[in-house]
Structures
1.
Amino acid sequence: MGQHESVATSLASAVREEIGASLARVDAELARRYPGDPGTRQPVHTVYVPGDVFTAGTVRSWGDQAVAALDEHAPDAASLAAVLDLSGDLAGPVYARVRAKLEREPIEDLRIDFEDGYGPRPDAEEDAAAARAARLVADAYADGTAPPYMGIRMKCMEAAVRDRGIRTLDIFLTGLMEAGGLPGGLVLTLPKVTYAEQVTAMARLCAEFEKARGLEPGRIGFEIQIETTQSILGPDGRATVARMIDAAEGRATGLHYGTFDYSASCGVSAAYQSMDHPAADHAKAVMQVAAAGTGVRLSDGSTNVLPVGPTSQVHDAWRLHHRLVRRSLARAYYQGWDMHPGHLPTRYAAVYAFYREGLEQAAARLAAYVGRAGGDVMDEPATAKALSGYLLRGVDCGAVDGDEVTGLTGLHRADLDRLAGRPVTP
């Protein structure tokens, strides 16, 4: 006997069919607007380097400077633990992994800056710098020295600099194509967005470039920097950032909070412009809700307090940076900006401690859920999704090893991807 024959019902099948038909458009909209996590690795930070300063040796130089800062100001696990108040159990593993990371992959995401960090230049000079950046990026991917993600921040879509920004983008992308094609880790950043129409214009630029070079439609995506009040609240009183994601037509890859521009636009005085100011928290909360489920990643901003000078001053800056990074992680902002090589030790120390200190508890909870539900069927899928996502981020950034997670949970990468609602990694 079929399952539908064993119970009595009162509604005709036509009712279900009519309801399904009436919601078909909503189903399609949900699938389009909220595809979920893309399943790719998210970098833990972005480093900005002015277009005229970036060289083939920049990534290695940042790593070497970060290691030198450790050697001078925290030469062993105990000294770093004392500065950052790390527990004894965490200090050794975190310190070892931080040093190894700085030697192996000091920067996860690098943006060659042609906006505020570069400023206005003669057209010929910026043309040459954009072409040079393309050559260096192509070479870095070819010889294996590139960080996982790399690209440029162009000038914005405001009238005064629009043409210059478009030309720089065109030169850079054309240079990459001439050198062999767009790298898989390419990231582009559109700054100082105020109206959704500016995002629409950027999406059109990407589409036109794809047509001109015979690329697959949708190949080029971009980040939107949220650093103006208009990008959070429009003149009609409605939240704007969700409209910007929609205006990108599926090309938006991230929302990056701009600490200092946004704070200044709110009238916050310079001494109080910080990632933890209430104005910043409000903006980021709006960003977080707007991006939820869309697959668009979030990034916090930066601190401009640099770890330079005598050891006591470096330690103060490290404590501040470490606290701010930990605060962002707890609020589900898993990425931020780093302004100086001296920020790298505390970026990775904060990130690694965050994932290592919760590893055993998260693994035990996930294993218990899987065991209780009998495998793939979860009685608390939202909890399993969060736990799996936490463990995957820890593995991706190097805080924990895949074998550690498997040993504690009995689950492999594909299992975690499935539970996290991500595309399954082969």
2.
Amino acid sequence: MADLLTALICASEKSANIARACKREDALFQLLIEEKKGPEKNKKFVQDFKTLADVIIQEVIKHDIGKKFPELAFHIAGEESNHFENGLGETIIVKVCKTEQETAELISKVLDGNLKAANLLAKCIHEDVHIAGPVLGKLNIDIPMDTIGIWVDPIDSTNQYIKGQLEEKFKSGIHPYGLKSAAVLIGVFDRNSGQPIMGVINVPFNEADPNLRWKGKYYWGISYNDINIHSIPKQLPADYNQLSIVMSSSEKDSIKKALTPLCGERIYYASGAGYKILCTILGLADAYVITTDTTFKWDTCGPHAILKSLGGGIVNLAKVLVEVKERGPGAIPELQYKMPDEGAKETEKWANRGGLVAYRSQQHLEAIINALLV
């Protein structure tokens, strides 16, 4: 598993490099900015560049992992389709080609002949990325490769990534919006049990120098049988009298009202499901609560595995509330990742329907559930 984890981290680092290049290189940034209006309105291929950046990152991860582990090639799934239509009405399937030149030529077809932008992307796509970590070399965990699947969210919090704001006002280390909420999420799960077993979160815009040159940071965790190991910095013990929750600012007022007695002023707001779970992982908040169906398996699988390695987890909120009402306190099932929701529409079949609670402490989870039962 050390080889697989290393490969996942390298893929996430290459993805972060692509995300940073799209913000840094003018030829790419001009395609990424918001759609112009009126006579200056961009063509369809320019409007779609927001999605193209996502797709390229997803295809890079699938290519790099599939090349090193061929048995996983058909078990890597993500948010985006890799089919694009250019300004001429041609449908192009985006993929990583054998050579940098071939990849550039393919991408230029999507970008209606913009070779400069295509060459910049192809260079990032074919760049070799290496990481070195003493802990990774010591991992000796045997997980059967023929039973695992992978979920990928190439750029979580895409809107914040596109807007590119550098937000300076924040509370308790939690940024309510901005580039810092963008993240590359990769999760490994067991195809038999559906349980998450390995996760990587890469934050491409973790830290900026005075010249706004960005550096990223990645986090990882493994939770498999009795083995729990992670890269998360040591945290202070949880204070069970000072519970804090992170959520979306658009959350229902009734939910905010129900949780206020638990948290007081310690309800924080942020963008991006992956980032809000990361805030929970890092101990910046004790839990993340969402009641809508707007998160998906690719948003939660990787972060869920890391939370499990810390002794926490993620549960379906609606199902837990029903379970506790009908049967009382007991074992609470975690989210699973192998089966779609058969009763949902095609676009929603992999949604975490019913909302969720991501938590670090069982005691905090129980307090949140009890507050929402009222």
3.
Amino acid sequence: MTSLPFPAGSCLPEGIERVLVTGGAGFIGGAVVRRLLRESRAQVITLDKCGYASDLTSIEAVERELAEAGGGPEGNRHRLLRVDLADAEAVDAAVREADPDLVMHLAAESHVDRSIEGPGAFISSNISGTFHLLQAVRQHWQGLSGARRERFRMHHISTDEVFGSLGPEGRFSETTPYDPRSPYSASKAASDHLVQAWHHTYGLPVVLTNCSNNYGPWQFPEKLIPVVILKAAAGEPIPLYGDGANVRDWLYVEDHVDALLLAATRGQLGRSYCVGGHGERTNRQVVEAICAQLDALRPAGATHSRLITRVDDRPGHDRRYAIDPARITSELGWQPRHSFEDGLAATVRWYLDQLDWCERVRQQAGYSGERLGVAG
């Protein structure tokens, strides 16, 4: 199990009293916010535009849990600032109001298929939005003094997709050249470069991480694993892109949160850390593993794998991703706590128990599970 070198009972070092989490109403951001609320005494401020994939249900549940346990008035340690990063003035005002000791920047448009259909939103959010945040955070940091200024950090969270596509051998590391292949990955690559430039040019104290594919509870049901679970549970055709041999390195979201907290607070300034779950699987292997879980949990008289349906491949579909997490392991002591098999089993059970939530968020987003990203 990962050992976080923080005071007993806290997931943060002493002195970090206010944390600004951009994208805190999203999948990974929400997991970060929940951990901070449960395992620290910091004030947590979520900055989120509350777009189609945003949802506060999980955070509200933690707030109720803490209130019932005597943790004070409901919601007293969490605030939501409903702000779009594309609005520079609003971002500047939000950072001033949050007055953070630590900024964890997770807000991003992140679905490759959606970036193929509408790349403009990815340029606006991931590139322009990161620029606006950097400017606001730099002004905030320059106005700090003493120990607060010395302690302040901004952590930028990115993706392995910025490195492009691997062949059958090798893994991405922090020295891998950038080679983005989709509008999404190109926009994230640009944001990474902006963050590094603000560090080298202005001295802004930043740390970066690039993670592999995350999965787990509370992920908006447009990504591969929740889509397959829901399609299989409903007895609907399960789309498998191309030959199904594209490889991804799967990382359970709570293991990722462990890594993020370590990198944000203990990582070397100006340094990047690659975070992967040692979970390389082809898409077909993932789909078949989910079907096997459904066969055991919800027998249907025939194997769920009969529902797997080959569809045309995604335009520009990267063949293989895999991450070498040696740096974050050797420097910060991080290791994933969940095997892919255990994490997937927990995720499948969670989605089967939360079908009402899945339907509600899909209706709110106007998304019925149809395929996206077919525009060439």
4.
Amino acid sequence: MSAKMLHGLPVARALRERTGRNVARLRAEGVEPRVAVVVATDNESTGWYVRSIAQQAAKASIRCDVLDLGPHAEPGELAQTLRGLAADEEVHGIILQTPLPAGVDVGELVALIPPVKDLDGANPLSFGRLSAGLPAFAAATAQAVIEVLDHYEVPLSGEHAVVVGRSMVVGKPLAQLLLHRDATVSVCHSQTPQLAEHTLRASVVVAAAGRAGLLDGGNVRSGSVVVDVGTNVDRQGNLIGDVESSSVQGIARALTPVPGGVGTVTTALLLLRTTRAALESVVERQ
């Protein structure tokens, strides 16, 4: 029996419906939700992603300002831009898009984004608040994994989940999110010996290491749910994940596709967060 495919499109559609309701509430208050995306690269894939955010924002009646500072932007210019956006009460969300020019300290820059506007959970303060169980935006891709699991009613409480990957973009924040849902969580990485000994015990496995073919049918137990967050490009130029899906199909009970899985949810989630941040600002002003 083949694994059920956990497609991201229905999840994104549900998030967009929530966004639409929030936009209607904001309009009633005379507020235009607004997100700013700061870009300092000529990377083609980044350009495609930013255009996607802008297009989806327009469809959702959210103002999206793309501030393209060019691939040679100086750290001071980037910092000044972020400080200005942080102080602007009409800007509800800020995204600092990577990659950045060589020599730029990403950590110093994301620290300038206030947690209330930190849509992508990039500021270390956001991660600290998340770890402490305080209100904060988690890294968007990590939250997208939870949104997919919730949409398809995958149980987490009391389950053993293994996250393969320890980045601040997915692995570490996702581990915190799973802990908040009462899962027992193991985090594995490139230095974990005998990876299969860990993944074979898990009912939920998330592959987020950025390595094609990292997990195959020998790494997952029968009836498990496998979430593939990997985005790799094969020799033919096709987008593939970290999971060898063909060998997992007959073992796992559910699997996210690549493309068309978790990545599809991320943009919709960022726009929903823009409206949430805007609603919070309305409450603060009242």
